[in-house]
Design brief:
The chain is built from 9 helices and 15 strands. Strand 3 and strand 4 form a beta hairpin. The longest helix is centred in the N-terminal third of the chain and has 13 residues.
């Protein structure tokens, strides 16, 4: 498994952002902000298989936000299934792992404004010929889909591909997104639903062993999450707007979705 956690849950890595900040944005006075992620979602955030360093689009974006708002970042690592509740409980001040903005999640956490829009795509093995879209997969009674419980891919599989039964035995549950992809490669499942950002990363790194089939199954907006009532939401939103306006996000998109080649 080329993706692995660099640290155990709760083990922290302190990253100091430069003290320079934009005069047009709030100044947070150099305080430390604890940011949690999963490191299992290339190219947004993952562990470089060659260097062992945690890198990705979200790291670059958050580091730039910290620079412009004048705060230091303490990165920590936890699993997806624990993240929203842990942020809600105030264990961490910001969460980032390609989190889809959803109304039910807003009951537990506050979201930033969207920083990225993505689409749900069907990730399959490179030699898959039994189905080519959602309808033909649904008709393949032996076909299995791998998903993390409580995620957008899980609900898309249940309600947009299969029969609306969340207990459907054709859905095999895994703790991490990376584990679903490994199960797909091993032949333990036949389909993984992913947003286009992660899908592009895995296909590019697969040497032809993975591919995307079918049409997009919808769009998702990604946002950073905060404990309810966090005073970080307004300044982070201001920084997101600035990074969109000056082309920084477009530069990151080119770096991570076009130029970066996993494992090279």
């Amino acid at each position: 498994m080329f993706l692995r956690r660099a640290v155990l849950a709760g083990l922290s890595l302190l990253v100091l952002a430069p003290f320079s900040f934009s005069a047009d944005l709030p100044d947070l006075g150099g305080k430390t902000v604890v940011v949690v992620t999963e490191n299992a979602y290339p190219p947004l955030q993952f562990v470089d298989p060659k260097s062992g360093e945690a890198i990705g689009w979200e790291y670059d974006a958050m580091n730039e936000i910290a620079k412009r708002l004048n705060f230091k970042i303490e990165y920590q690592n936890t699993s997806w299934d624990a993240m929203i509740q842990a942020v809600s409980d105030g264990q961490y001040q910001i969460g980032m792992t390609g989190i889809t903005i959803k109304d039910d999640r807003k009951e537990k956490v506050d979201f930033s404004n969207p920083y990225m829009r993505s689409q749900q795509l069907m990730l399959v093995r490179g030699d898959e010929a039994r189905f080519s879209d959602a309808k033909s997969f649904a008709a393949l009674e032996s076909g299995l889909v791998g998903a993390q419980p409580g995620t957008s891919p899980f609900y898309t599989a249940v309600y947009e591909i299969l029969d609306g039964n969340e207990q459907n035995p054709r859905i095999k549950l895994f703790e991490t997104f990376g584990a679903t992809v490994q199960a797909l490669k091993a032949g333990d499942v036949d389909l993984v639903l992913t947003d286009s950002t992660a899908g592009e990363g895995y296909v590019a790194a697969s040497n032809g062993s993975l591919k995307i089939v079918g049409e997009p199954l919808g769009t998702e907006d990604f946002g950073f999450i905060f404990p309810k009532g966090s005073d970080l939401v307004v300044p982070v939103n201001a920084a997101i707007a600035a990074l969109k306006a000056d082309g920084t996000f477009e530069t990151l998109n080119k770096k991570w979705f076009l130029d970066y080649k996993m494992g090279e």
